[in-house]
DNA sequence: GCCGTTTTCGGCCCGACTGTTTTCAGTCG
């Protein structure tokens, strides 16, 4: 079984090696394209191949790449990549992640000195040998030496929630400067991607060079990388890269569109423009060298014959076709949520009493919440036993009397799915729960087939309401479990079990691609905070972000229903 | 390597910044 990620990685690696080899850059691009297509697809390529689907039907994949992908799926290997690896040392690929070194210069260094590792490169740079190459001046050499040191930092991505405050602080800082009219944070931040590589800030200002000067004096700036007439780049203390770009009013929409990306989406838009005899760049849309649009994003889309596409959808995952066929989703909003069905109280590892949580939920405008504390096995999280949960339910009954007409508290639990797929409570307890969130908290590395069986057994348990954090991943810490989601989706639909979008900023599973797949299969989702304190009830905004990236509408999410409607959907 | 209501050949997204030269290549996003 090859995942889309694994296939994409092999194709991208091939592209890197071909590039160092000095292959036709358009061929290299074709491999990169293919990698991106596979990576971004909402379909499993492994399945597509095994079902005999004609891959050449996908734009960007032709006869050759189709065969190569089949080879990778069927054998787990790619002969072209194997050959290239023999030919080109891994050290050269490592060099690509040095700032300022691309394929051309790496090849130049390799051809001249036979350098095959970062160690060797360092020696040549320090000894002054490297200066002899044409185009290698003292500044570039200094940059390379610095790049070798900072190599590890390259490629780190921050959680969206981690940069949220930084981004907003920067926005405020820039708005304070005289003559600054608009500050917008574009890039993957605006697309609400779960992780963000850098911040792209767009400003409309009277006197950009002055703004740039002000920008690089921001107290958190550690290093100024470049400062030009329309762009500047800095690194903050925590390593985050921030790009500032200046535009005029007339180009604001085109620039916002351009810098919001994604790259794949932009390329598609430009291709469409070309087919219409137009040109799109960050300054506007041009026909016969005459500017016909650029002030707003709506205008840009309209000029190329499209409707406005929400930033979260701009990943070239079918949004352009959907727009043409007038079937773009009407994305869910935070205000659509009427309750939260996964909250921990101080009965297990939460910080607050149920009453405190209920009051906060009323403040948030919710009609209902579910208190779902951990079950027995999870001792590290103060998991509850039978006696304790019964006591808790008595308290919930009392509170429901007290808050009648204001909020309804569901009696629930987050019950462990044991290794064999059975649950960590007996029926006597489960039947007293109105909401049963079943979740895996250990043995994350079972083989795909066993893990899938484990989850499906839980889905088929008549007491289970929801599978919580279904992939078990923790961003930057733990890989997702190996699961056959196609099967899980169809079992979830069959059994009327909901799948959770967990809003913890480092979980956010299901992820965007899986959400889209789930919706296409008719799965009902639930967006929960998994809050352990009052403040993190607000985490649902991250869950909403992820849902929107997965083309999620209000109708796909059960906690947008009224209390009455929801109760009608739950098991007796 | 992909693609085709001008095409099976000859294009392929587009511009800014840097460092090196002195008009441009390489890199980056």
Could you walk me through the main structural features you see in this protein, from its secondary elements to its overall organization?
- The protein is α/β, with parallel strands linked by helices and 572 residues long.
- The protein folds into four domains: 4-154, DNA polymerase, domain 1, CATH 1.10.150.110; 158-247, Beta Polymerase, domain 2 (2-Layer Sandwich), CATH 3.30.460.10; 251-324, Beta Polymerase, domain 3 (2-Layer Sandwich); 334-571, Metal-dependent hydrolases (TIM Barrel, Alpha-Beta Barrel), CATH 3.20.20.
- The chain has 24 helices and 17 strands.
- The strands form four sheets. A seven-stranded parallel sheet has the order 11-12-13-14-15-16-17. A five-stranded mixed sheet has the order 2-4-7-6-5, with helices on both faces. A three-stranded antiparallel sheet has the order 8-9-10.
- A hairpin with a 2-residue loop joins β8 and β9 (284-287).
- The protein is globular.
- The model has no long low-confidence stretch (mean pLDDT 91).
- It binds one DNA strand of 29 nucleotides through residues 24-31, 33-34, 59-65, 99-105, 134-140, 143, 187, 198, 200, 226-231, 233, 243, 245, 258-259, 261, 263, 266-267, 269-271, 273-274, 279-283.
- Keywords: DNA damage, DNA repair, DNA replication, DNA synthesis, DNA-directed DNA polymerase, Exonuclease, Hydrolase, Methylation, Nuclease, Nucleotidyltransferase, Sodium, Transferase, Ubl conjugation.
- Its cofactor is Mg(2+).
- It holds the Pfam family PHP.
């Amino acid at each position: 079984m090859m995942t889309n990620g694994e296939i994409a990685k092999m194709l991208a690696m091939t592209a890197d090696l071909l590039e160092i080899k000095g292959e036709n850059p358009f061929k290299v691009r074709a491999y990169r394209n293919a990698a991106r297509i596979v990576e971004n697809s909402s379909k499993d390529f492994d399945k597509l191949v095994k079902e005999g689907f004609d891959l050449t039907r996908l734009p960007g994949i032709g006869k050759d790449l189709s065969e190569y992908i089949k080879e990778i799926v069927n054998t787990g290997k790619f002969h072209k990549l194997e050959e290239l690896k023999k030919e080109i040392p891994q050290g050269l690929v490592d060099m690509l992640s040095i700032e300022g070194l691309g394929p051309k210069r790496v090849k130049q260094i390799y051809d001249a000195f036979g350098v095959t590792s970062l160690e060797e490169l360092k020696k040549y740079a320090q000894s002054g040998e490297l200066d002899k190459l044409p185009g290698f001046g003292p500044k570039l050499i200094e940059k390379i030496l610095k790049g070798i040191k900072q190599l590890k930092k390259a490629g780190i991505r921050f959680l969206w929630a981690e940069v949220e405050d930084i981004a907003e602080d920067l926005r405020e800082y820039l708005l304070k400067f005289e003559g600054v009219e608009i500050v917008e944070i574009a890039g993957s931040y605006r697309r609400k991607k779960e992780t963000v590589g850098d911040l792209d800030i767009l400003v409309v200002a009277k006197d950009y060079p002055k703004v740039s000067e002000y920008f690089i004096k921001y107290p958190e700036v550690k290093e100024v990388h470049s400062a030009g007439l329309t762009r500047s780049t800095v690194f903050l203390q925590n390593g985050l890269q921030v790009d500032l770009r200046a535009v005029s009013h007339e180009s604001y929409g085109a620039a916002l569109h351009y810098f919001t990306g994604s790259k794949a989406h932009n390329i598609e838009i430009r291709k469409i423009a070309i087919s219409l005899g137009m040109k799109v760049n960050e300054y506007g849309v041009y026909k016969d060298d005459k500017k016909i649009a650029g002030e707003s994003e709506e205008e840009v889309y309209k000029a190329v014959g499209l409707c406005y596409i929400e930033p979260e959808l701009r990943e070239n995952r079918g949004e352009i076709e959907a727009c043409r066929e007038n079937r773009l989703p009407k994305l869910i909003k935070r205000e659509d949520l009427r309750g939260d069905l996964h909250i921990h109280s101080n009965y297990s590892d939460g910080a607050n009493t149920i009453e405190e949580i209920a009051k906060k939920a009323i403040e948030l405008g919710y009609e209902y919440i579910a208190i779902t504390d951990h079950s027995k096995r999870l001792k590290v999280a103060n998991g509850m036993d039978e006696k304790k949960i019964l006591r808790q339910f008595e308290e919930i009954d009392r509170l429901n009397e007290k808050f009648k007409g204001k909020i309804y508290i569901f009696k629930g639990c987050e019950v462990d799915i044991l290794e064999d797929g059975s649950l960590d409570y007996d029926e006597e307890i489960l039947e007293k729960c109105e909401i049963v969130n079943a979740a895996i908290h250990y043995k994350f590395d079972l083989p795909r087939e066993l893990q899938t069986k484990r989850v499906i057994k839980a889905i088929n348990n008549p007491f289970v309401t929801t599978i919580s954090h279904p992939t078990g991943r923790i961003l930057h810490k733990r890989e997702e479990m190996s699961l056959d989601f196609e099967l899980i989706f169809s079992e979830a639909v069959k059994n009327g079990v909901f799948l959770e979008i967990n809003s913890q900023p480092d979980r956010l599973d299901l992820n965007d691609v899986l959400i889209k797949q789930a919706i296409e299969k008719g799965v009902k989702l639930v967006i929960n905070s998994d809050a352990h304190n009052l403040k993190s009830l607000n985490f649902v905004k991250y869950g909403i972000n992820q849902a929107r990236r997965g083309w999620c509408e209000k109708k796909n999410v059960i906690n947008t229903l009224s209390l009455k409607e929801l109760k009608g959907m739950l098991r007796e």
